[in-house]
């Protein structure tokens, strides 16, 4: 496995892969690699592609009061996981390499990014799109591989890729959960055992919503009310939003059509912000 820090070296390595007739799959991450990322690497390798993974905590996607400075950074463990899973290139640029002094361009999607996380995290999707588009220009992959855990991010990227006619395919991998049911996330590292136990109420709420749909409930307000009730019983949890949405547009859905909507949740566990979702 190659570890590359500079944009010039990354471009050269990608050119060499293409010259050798290889298909390139790219998985952008913020590092702190976990089982969810490993599942995406396996998905990409199953396509016969040379897998490039970035581990970059992107400063553009964090607001001024968010956790950029303390976000988990585990470069040694990232390298071990990437090598074990068969990654060919681990791209680890610095913020200065990606966004040198004078960098002043941004990319904004104006519809799918607006509800849900877009209401309270104005920088998130603009920063993500700006960074990832630069990555795509550097690497020029054939395949972009993304997880379904960050469901709004996925929808925003798909919309931008379609609008801008990006010359790549997008493949998605399912959300991965730990044995206790909590959605795998780097920010889970912040949780104490007590906080983690309380966060499991969100998993129970999502599963209850799915059970209600399976039993015939079709009105989204009933699902949201039940999920809110379950989560509200835990004193450390504060709901930011619970919404039943179309996964392509993130627009709210009033009546459930099985297989065409999901419940999205964002919540605080004390000072830790997490998200989760469940297809309905």
Notes on the structure:
- With 280 residues, this protein is an alpha/beta fold.
- The chain folds into two domains: 2-173, HUPs (Rossmann fold, 3-Layer(aba) Sandwich); 186-279, Pantoate--beta-alanine Ligase, Chain: A,domain 2 (2-Layer Sandwich), CATH 3.30.1300.10.
- It is built from nine helices and nine strands.
- The protein has helices at 7-19, 35-46, 75-84, 95-98, 117-120, 122-139, 151-163, 193-214, 220-232, and strands at 2-4, 24-29, 50-55, 89-91, 143-147, 169-173, 237-245, 262-269, 272-279.
- The strands form two sheets. It has a six-stranded parallel beta sheet, sandwiched between helices. Strands 7-8-9 form a three-stranded antiparallel beta sheet, covered by helices on one side.
- It is globular, with a radius of gyration of 19 Å.
- The protein starts with a strand and ends with a strand.
Per-chain topology:
Layout: E1 2-4, H1 7-19, E2 24-29, H2 35-46, E3 50-55, H3 75-84, E4 89-91, H4 95-98, H5 117-120, H6 122-139, E5 143-147, H7 151-163, E6 169-173, H8 193-214, H9 220-232, E7 237-245, E8 262-269, E9 272-279
Parallel strand pairs: 1-4, 2-3, 2-5, 3-4, 5-6
Antiparallel strand pairs: 7-8, 8-9
Question: What's a quick, concise take on this entry?
Answer:
Its main location: cytoplasm. With 280 residues, the chain is of the alpha/beta class.
Question: What features would you highlight for this structure?
Answer:
single chain, three-stranded antiparallel sheet, alpha/beta, six-stranded parallel sheet, 280 residues, 9 helices, 9 strands, Pantoate--beta-alanine Ligase, Chain: A,domain 2, Rossmann fold
């Amino acid at each position: 496995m190659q570890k590359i820090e500079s944009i010039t070296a990354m471009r050269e390595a990608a050119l060499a892969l293409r010259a050798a007739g290889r298909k390139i799959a790219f998985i952008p991450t913020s590092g702190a690699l976990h089982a969810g990322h490993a599942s995406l690497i396996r998905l990409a390798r199953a396509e016969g592609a040379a897998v490039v993974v970035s581990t970059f905590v992107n400063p553009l996607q964090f607001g001024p009061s968010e956790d950029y400075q303390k976000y988990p950074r585990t470069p040694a463990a990232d390298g071990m996981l990437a090598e074990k899973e068969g990654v060919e290139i681990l791209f680890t640029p610095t913020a200065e390499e990606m966004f040198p002094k004078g960098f002043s361009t941004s990319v904004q999607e104006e519809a799918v990014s607006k509800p849900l996380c877009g209401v309270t995290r104005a920088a998130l999707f603009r920063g993500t799109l700006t960074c990832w588009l630069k990555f795509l220009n550097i690497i020029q992959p054939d395949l972009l591989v993304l997880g379904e855990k960050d469901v709004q991010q996925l929808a925003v990227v798909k919309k931008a890729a379609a609008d801008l006619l990006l010359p790549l395919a997008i493949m998605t991998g399912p959300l991965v959960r730990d044995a206790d049911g909590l959605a795998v996330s780097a920010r889970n590292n912040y949780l104490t055992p007590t906080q983690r136990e309380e966060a499991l109420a969100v998993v129970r709420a999502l599963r209850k919503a799915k059970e209600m749909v399976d039993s015939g409930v079709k009105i989204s307000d009933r699902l949201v009310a039940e999920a809110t009730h379950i989560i509200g019983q835990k004193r450390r949890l504060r709901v930011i939003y619970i919404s039943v949405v179309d996964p392509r547009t993130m627009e709210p859905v009033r009546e459930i059509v099985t297989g065409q909507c999901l419940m999205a949740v964002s919540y605080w566990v004390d000072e830790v912000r997490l998200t989760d979702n469940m297809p309905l």
